[in-house]
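It is worth pausing here to work through a concrete case rather than discussing structure prediction in the abstract. The textbook approach is simple: state the sequence, then state the predicted structure, then interpret. We follow exactly that order.
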Amino acid sequence: MILRIGTRGSRLALAQSEWVRERVEERYSDIRVELVRIKTKGDKILDSPLSEIGGKGLFVKEIEDALLRKEVDVAVHSVKDVPTELPDGLKLAVFPKREDPHDAFISADFETLADLPEGSSVGTSSLRRSAQLLHMRPDLHIVPLRGNVDTRLRKLESGELNAIILAAAGLKRLGLSARINQIIPSDELLPAIGQGALGLELRENDKIGELLHFLNHGPSEVAVRAERAFLRELEGGCQVPVAAYGRLSGENLILKGMVAELDGSRIIRDEVRGQKNSPEDMGVSLARRLLASGAAEILARIYEKA
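Step two, the predicted structure:
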């Protein structure tokens, strides 16, 4: 049997898909896995911030189209790239064990975010990161930064920037942990929804899901489903500074969420705790609490400007 994995062609996407390929071929001696590289809109447009080119589905739509046309059998995504509303006929079915969900501080001259001198230039492509950074350090100069991990690291090495912020998971998966100066605590920089998690997308009712279920990690699935329900209730995307992070403590799920003004002048945070067997309900509950606390006004203002 040949199993075709649809994947983006970036070094990180290929490393993630290769990890899945190796696990599947180790498990099943009669399955051969092929990686099918697919270029997405987000890979083609590198000179504009994601928030300006319509964030939803930028890195997954073409892969989902191939899945629906049965040109590939499964898609391997970074969950943070996957919109909360999936095309009819598709489902996110398998969530391997999550890598570190936190953001990483990288600099040639400074060890931590707090060490940056006043007025330092920090590169990031994320409104979520920039809003939280400006809330902590209004003096910082935020510079939009697109491109793959290697491209972003080169911009730092060229001296254009004092520091950059990247997802720790991507650096670790690429064997670049040594480049990390600081793992930024979630109390300072709340991660993106699904950051560090992989999601395997399949066609509805496709029995391939049964073959791949061994890759699923229950605690990761619970946390990610709660985070995505939070985002769905807020109707958020790349155009808004929204964050959430869920983690299990025994049988309980702790879910933290945040909505911020674009300039970081105001951040609304809250958290909920509850049984892990109803993650989506917890995500919805947290979103509604934030909306009632002022997030609704912030989101309406941002969408009005968009």
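Step three, interpretation. The longest strand covers residues 252-260. The CA atoms of residues 49 and 121 lie 17 Å apart.
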